[in-house]
Amino acid sequence: MTSDLTIQPFTQVDPKYLECCDLLYRYYKKTHATVAPLTANYATFIDEVPTKTGFYNLNQKNEIENVVFTENNEIAYICSINHKNCEAFIQATLRKIFSKYNEIFFEADDTDWAATLLLDQFNFNKNESFNTYIYD
Fold first, then answer.
1. For the chain, how big is the Rg over CA atoms in Å?
2. Which superkingdom is the protein from (predicted)?
3. What mean pLDDT is predicted for residues 66-95?
4. For residues 72 and 104, what is the distance between their CA atoms, to the nearest angstrom?
């Protein structure tokens, strides 16, 4: 991992927290629309979905581009608006988490390009798959 990208930590009391939540809501809604459309409204989503800590990075216009919501050694959610530097953001985040923990865990599905990019940072048998089916 060779990224020099600067990442910032956040907590629920950080002024950037709601901006991180907003990006996650928009990203999640867009990336999951075809397989599991988001039914929660924004307020419910913010109250129930994100963890209260994580990391983000800013672009040159001081706008949030990439966010991970974390809880200890779990990456609960990842979202991005920048395909070009998301991998560098992921690498910087992984370095930060691995500096504190020996292992991490996360869930990644193939409808989510940022989560797939996170998954691609690891060596494993990609032919092994765990599928989720929803009975409607």
1. 15
2. Bacteria
3. 96
4. 9
Q: Is 111 or 99 the better-scoring residue by pLDDT?
A: 99
Please compute the mean of the pLDDT values over residues 83-91 and round it to a whole number: 96
65: its two tokens: 């581009």
Reported confidence tier of residue 49, pLDDT bands at 50, 70, 90: confident
Q: What's residue 125's pLDDT?
A: 72
Long-range contacts made by residues 116-120, C-beta under 8 angstroms, separation at least 24?
A: 117/86, 117/87, 117/90, 118/75, 118/78, 118/90
Question: Would residue 8 be called left, alpha or beta, if left means φ above 0 and alpha means ψ between -120 and 50 degrees?
Answer: beta
Spatial separation of the C-alpha atoms in residues 59 and 66, rounded to whole Å: 9
DSSP for 58-121, please give it.
E-TTS-EEEEEEEETTEEEEEEES-TTTHHHHHHHHHHHHHTT-S--EE---TT-HHHHHHHTT
Side-by-side strand order, sheet with 8-11: 8-11, 53-58, 64-71, 74-80, 105-106
Q: Domains of the chain (ranges plus CATH)?
A: 8-113 (3.40.630.30)
